[in-house]
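An instance as discussed:

___
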Amino acid sequence: MEMRVVGIDGGQDKKALCLSLGVDVFIDFLDVKDVVRAVSDLTDCGVAGVIVTAASRSAYEQGAQMLGIGGTLVPVGLYVQEDLALAARKQIRAEVQCFPMEQAEAVFQSKANRYKGRAALRLE
């Protein structure tokens, strides 16, 4: 699919970690003034997806600005403690259907509205 993975973090230790995990390009936000511009210089029309692992507003804002048309932002780095407290107070729960890994292809090929809530794969 000719996609490249861009890691964005700060410092040489994080660069080494990201490169060891297989990123194609590392952008150090401590050295680069305009991270969004640096990412857009690597693409023709924005990125297909952004996974935000940082719990900062600017990371989400920049991540959204990097997306191309139809791109997806995946929020991973939320304020976990606050989110859990909110969920506890509001009695929020998620509907999840779990499937064995052997059914992964069938799960991915099925229509999204087939499942109540979210589909998840067990890694056991």
